[in-house]
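Supplementary Note 3. Input sequence used for the single-chain structure prediction.
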Amino acid sequence: MSACQGQISKDSLVNSNFDGIVGGNDVAVTEATAKQALNFRVLYDPQITEDERGTITRYKVSQCTASAISPRLILTAGHCISKREDALHRIELKNEDGEAIYYKASKFLVHPEYENGNKKYDLALVLLETALPENIEIMKLPAKDVDLGLNSIKAAGFGRMDGRPSFPGNVGILRTADLNIAKYSPTEPAFIVDQSQGKGFCQGDSGGPAITTIGSDTMVVGVASKTFFDDKLPKEEWNLCIMQGEYMNVQFHMDWIEATAKILSQE
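The predicted structure, written as discrete structure tokens, is reproduced below.
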């Protein structure tokens, strides 16, 4: 299939919210990106058992990615939020000794247009119970209606490294990849990245930031939402993450982000 978006017939594409970084590079804990893309997980369906060690609670886990826009506010995809009563949303970090530290969500707001079924508004803001550590980078956001001249972005996420459903994904490891933008406008709610060169975001990267640096400012300009793939291939040949990816355009959604951040910050 051609990498050119115009040569991909619309009826041959299926979108997938099984959105890892495919063909990317692992990120060391000392790198800046490790402080910019955060491991966002939703735990649900708790199963409690008893054994000689005591009471053990096991959960099913949904993997996503996020970025911090204030010490207690994180930006992610709307479809990463679960409305289940037993769902526990949290950011998972590791300290210098490799031990896990959890930052639980106290409240979240999903874009109302997304909740009404408009997939071009796949955004959510999450308020954490406590502030993230000072070494986590608070991401800058772009100004509205300004032509950023974007040609490429850095994708970052904790998701699968292989888009073939029958292959192991190895989620939970932060990876990055530089992706070319196929279609972008500050006045459109979403933008498209080319994933046809063996690199792209995938399942578990949903909510992850599209990062760019303009001058001295490193900012998040997109939120990973979904991928497109060719469903006319035999199912055993499906690869969900190597054609195109769609990011929510942060520029377009700045009014909602700023208004919602103000509401949550009053909590």
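Residues 1-20 have pLDDT under 50 and may be disordered. The chain is about 5% helix and 40% strand.
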